[in-house]
Specification:
With 477 residues, the chain is α+β, with helices and mostly antiparallel strands. Helix content is 26%, strand content 19%. The chain contains eleven helices and 20 strands. Strands 2-3-9-5-6 form a five-stranded antiparallel beta sheet. Strands 12, 13, 15, 16 and 19 form a five-stranded antiparallel beta sheet that branches. A four-stranded mixed beta sheet has the order 8-7-4-10.
Length: 477
């Protein structure tokens, strides 16, 4: 489930840079100081604002960690390449891929981080077969899926798509199929290209070779504009520390400099500044009193409780957690919960992701036990593209090593699966082999806790209207 691309305009950044420079001149450095507003607030008020900032900022801080791993940290194992370039991975993901949780393993990925501060970026898509599903998911720093390029939205005929940052207001250039606007200067782009079977990999490589990302000036054959100022990147927090360390608020302040204030959030962003979360300025928690530091931590705990409560209420359905700003209606708890369930998941019209964490009796899934999942004849998931079910360990939510190197079962594999006497399919979910005669239908599980993520790409109306529901995982008899 995973993501990044970004478009932005140099007209916007100097405003932010001027503000930061003025603040720096006033304070003597770029670090925020305990403001008069924060000093005047009671601990309970600080705790409330910290809770709001934690919930609002969780997706942004997590997106920054992913973006940093993919496009900034050249020494890291997850580095994909510099901004405004594309990396095609002509393979499926394995347990060695750990940059983000719940990665899929049935569509070879293409990754790009977009920096739109200097000028827009053009994404070129080559033509491909009508029956091959592909999608380029465009996520801003908020983690909103603000638009799509792909089989469902733009078709398989190919084209040139301009991704523009929040300050760009130019006319549509010649040869551009569509102009797509981002709210933030940085964008995470995740491309997925369907792989029919192992023998199809060379075809996927040819398609990926036709994907291209370039600045608008290069697309038009014009001189490049003045480059955007260099960024002094800060090191992201480890995933666990994001939930407990007040350094979280410093990370949020850093990321907010790339996200101009949305009018609907002006009051919220002003409250953040009251406790020292100022875009582009260092949030130095050590400068605050012990009582304020305790209130900040308590706010984080409160925010995580709200996220945990939302996750517990999902009953295996996560399709309400991902989408555009318009779809989510500024439900910040939903956006934060979606980040922790699986950052970078698609919007429901593009894909549905039921998460199976418990068996039919309500017990958590455990690799020490044996389970089955049955699709009755004629009742496979109704999709326009394809479906899959992928195994992840818990709580890490990463792919699971196993003797078959099999991390999922999907619809392209149906010809290789054994059918039941009634014409349906039974999937065996357990740690050890169910026996040679059943291994074709075996989805290997870890020894400990696990979950199974269903993926329904380009779902049909029956799925979107909940007229067809995922079968439950049954304890083996």
């Amino acid at each position: 489930m995973l993501k990044k691309k970004i478009v932005c305009l140099s007209l916007l950044l100097p405003v932010a840079m001027t503000f930061t420079a003025a603040a720096q001149a006033a304070t003597g450095d770029s670090a925020s100081q305990p403001s008069a507003g924060a000093a005047a607030l009671k601990p309970a008020q600080i705790e409330t604002i910290a809770k709001e900032a934690y919930i609002f900022g969780t997706p942004m801080v997590d997106m920054y960690r992913t973006m940093y791993a993919f496009s900034v940290d050249r020494t890291g194992s997850q580095y994909k390449g510099p901004f405004n370039s594309i990396l095609n991975i002509a393979r499926v993901f394995t347990p060695e891929d750990t940059a983000f949780v719940t990665p899929n393993s049935d569509t070879p990925y293409s990754f790009a981080g977009l920096d739109l501060r200097a000028e827009p970026v053009v994404i070129t898509i080559p033509p491909m077969e009508k029956n091959r599903y592909f999608v380029f998911q465009l996520m801003d720093m908020y983690t909103f899926n603000f638009d799509y390029i792909g089989s469902r939205t733009t078709g398989n005929q190919g084209g040139h798509y301009l991704i523009a940052g929040p300050g760009w207001k130019g006319a549509t250039p010649k040869g551009i199929s569509k102009v797509i606007h981002s709210e933030t200067d940085m964008v995470n782009v995740v491309g997925r290209t369907q792989l029919f079977n192992p023998a199809d990999l060379d075809n996927v490589k040819k398609i990926q070779a036709g994907y291209r990302i370039e600045p608008l000036s290069a697309f038009e054959g014009q001189p490049a504009p003045q480059p955007a100022p260099a960024i002094d990147w800060i090191k992201p927090l480890p995933p666990g520390a994001e939930h407990t360390s007040p350094e979280f608020f410093n990370q949020l302040a850093f990321v907010l400099q790339f996200a101009p204030v949305n009018p609907a959030e002006a009051a919220l962003r002003h409250r953040f500044e009251q406790i020292g979360i100022v875009p582009g300025k260092t949030f130095d928690v050590s400068a605050f009193s012990p009582a304020t530091q305790a209130a900040l931590k308590a706010g984080m705990e409160d925010g995580q409780k709200a996220i945990d409560a939302r996750r517990a209420s999902l009953a295996g359905r996560s399709d309400t957690l991902f989408g555009s700003r318009k779809f989510l209606k500024n439900d910040y708890v939903a956006r934060a919960t979606g980040t922790q369930v699986g950052i970078g998941a698609n919007s429901r019209d593009e894909a549905l992701y039921p998460i199976l964490e418990k068996d039919a009796t309500g017990q958590p899934l455990d690799g020490s036990k044996h389970y089955t999942l049955h699709f009755a004849k004629g009742h496979l998931p109704p999709v326009n593209a394809f479906w899959s079910m992928t195994m992840y360990n818990v709580p890490e939510q990463l792919l699971v090593k196993n003797p078959l190197n099999r991390y999922l079962i999907n619809s392209p594999m149906l010809p290789e699966l054994k059918t039941d006497p009634d014409g349906g399919y039974t999937i065996y979910i357990q740690n050890e082999s169910p026996g040679k005669d059943k291994e074709a239908n075996w989805l290997p599980a870890p020894q400990g806790k696990f979950m199974v993520a269903m993926r329904y790409y380009w779902p049909k109306p029956a799925l979107l209207k909940n007229e067809w529901v995922s079968p439950k995982i049954q304890p083996a008899k």
